[in-house]
Amino acid sequence: MNFSKSHLEQNNSGKGERFSRAGFILAAIGSSVGLGNMWKFPYITGENGGAAFFLLFIVCLLLIGLPVLLAELAIGRSGRGSAATAFIKAGGHKGWLAAGLLQVLTPFIILSFYVIIAGWTLQYAITSFSGSLFSNADFGGQFDSFIGGYMPIVWQFVSVLITGWIVAKGVSNGIEKFNKVLIPAMLVLLIILMIRAITLPGAGAGVSFFLNPDFSQLTTESALVALGHAFFSLSLGMGILVTYGSYVDKNQSLGAATVAVGAGDLIYAFIAGLIIFPTTFSFGIAPDRGPKLIFVALPAAFSAMPLGFLFGGLFFILLAIAALTSAVSLLEVPVKYFMERLSWSRNLAVWVISLAVFIVGLPSALSMGLVPEFNINGTNLFDWMDFMASNIMLPVGGLLVTIFAGYFWKTAAEASGLKSGWFKVWLFMLRYVAPILVLLVLLHTSGIIHF
Q1: Is the pLDDT confidence value at 192 over 90?
Q2: Residue 119 has pLDDT above 80, yes or no
């Protein structure tokens, strides 16, 4: 591989593609408002005490999330390259190519199993609207039967096609237009579902659980979970924000954009909590049901609700939109890299990588039931891929971003666009706070340390 500086400058495929100011913020919010907000956030909040955990999550987002988010955007805009070469183009040593390549590989791995879950949401939306989801009260059995059959592969393929079709249209005509329509649509759906949830009989207990903190419920484990989720929910360490940063106009304030994206992430997570917890409490469902909360517990609640087929369908459409906005962001990272590295057209890069994503994801989908032999040390391949990407690759990628921006990036002040006082605060966070916290998350999630 010849990654000389001249080679990098000559092969900036996609040059000239740009987001509008509003389009960039909506696209960045779309990358963060995914299944992490709608699926993972509710159940980990339920498992860690509710309101107190949500407040802790906000603190972690401010301490670790926003500083790293700004760093990734600034590196991307400064380098104007793919996630693989942005560190070098921003002025880093060629050894930083390894950090960049990790940020291309990570979203590819995540996307390979993410589209599987996106497919589940599409299936559940259709079966909810048709009423067939509620024809059998054994929702746990339905879910296990579904993921153990062939239909998840069909829906996985559909999810890949939709994602590829959007990304193939380009940055402004595809990704931006898609997010300009669907991010506001998500907000409308969230508000409709929130109003339905908080007006259910007995919903007040769920609202209280989510909004009245009981700090005695927090543990050291809770703090590390909150740190990890703050990192995951903003799409940090995935190369997405580095890639999106390369499409940002040089006159756009990255500080203001960072705050806007963080605020959007919090707002969507907050409203999701006001849907999930009032609904679960209203129907006597424990909020700590883990990953199956969405696909098993909530259908049971919708089945007992007036017009449950409609609200259930709207909820799973909401999940599908959230999944697809993130999937689009994940696909754009390797697409930009192959456009830059091999001078491929966007169409060629999109469909070659989409096919690879589908093929690589097949064993994960099959490991859920059809081919249980696809496992590593007793863990099915789906869960193993999720663990490696989310718990190892993401924190490592984020840690490298903080080290580069905090210690090795000579033009960080200029690239960030921050005034002197704010720059000093940002640099302090990148040097002394974020790396330590990210390292703790990495050591904890990898099982090296326990509390």
Answers
A1: yes
A2: yes
Contacts of 281 (CB under 8 A, 6+ apart): 202, 203, 205, 206, 209, 287
CA 155 to chain centre: 20
Nearest to 142 by CA among 363, 296, 372, 272: 296
Structure tokens at 227: 């740190």
Q: What is the token pair recorded at 257?
A: 């954009």
Sign of CA dihedral 215, 67, 396, 102: positive
Give dist(CA 332, CA 328) in Å, integer: 6
pLDDT digit string (tens) for 234-270? 888 899 999 999 999 888 899 999 999 999 889 888 8
Scored b (16 or more CB within 10 A) or e, 167-205 reads bbbbbeebbbbbbbebbeebbebbeebbebbbebeebee
Q: What is the mean pLDDT of residues 139-147?
A: 89
Residue for token pair 């859920």: 368
- Sign, CA torsion 265/270/275/279: positive
145 Cβ partners below 8 Å, 6+ apart?
A: none
The CA-CA-CA angle for residues 403, 333, 74, to 5°, reads 40
Q: Which of 348, 401, 404 lies closest to 103, judged by CA?
A: 401
Q: Which amino acid makes up residue 79?
A: G
* Encoded amino acid at 14, one letter: G
In order of 129, 193, 285, 312, 441, the CA distances from 307 in angstroms are 10, 12, 19, 9, 42
d(C-alpha 104, C-alpha 76), whole Å: 13
Per-chain mean pLDDT for the chain:
88
Q: What is the spatial distance between Cα 227 and Cα 24, in angstroms, rounded to a whole number? A: 25
Residue type, 25: I
> Cβ distance 108 to 352 under 8 Å?
no
Sole residue written with tokens 């883990």: 290
Rounded CA-CA distance 311/306 in Å is 9
Q: Convert the pLDDT of each residue in 46-98 to its tens digit.
A: 888 888 998 999 998 988 899 999 999 999 999 988 999 999 999 888 999 99
Q: Which of 51, 384, 434, 436 is closest to 205 using CA atoms?
A: 51
How many C-beta neighbours within 10 Å does residue 296 have? 19
CB hemisphere CA count around 206 (13 angstroms): 28
Q: Are 274 and 44 in contact (CB under 8 A)?
A: no
11 within 8 A of 338, measured Cβ to Cβ: no
- Alpha-carbon distance of 78 to 313, in angstroms, equals 43
CA–CA gap between residue 271 and residue 420 (Å, rounded): 36
What's the CA gap between 87 and 397, in Å, rounded? Answer: 12
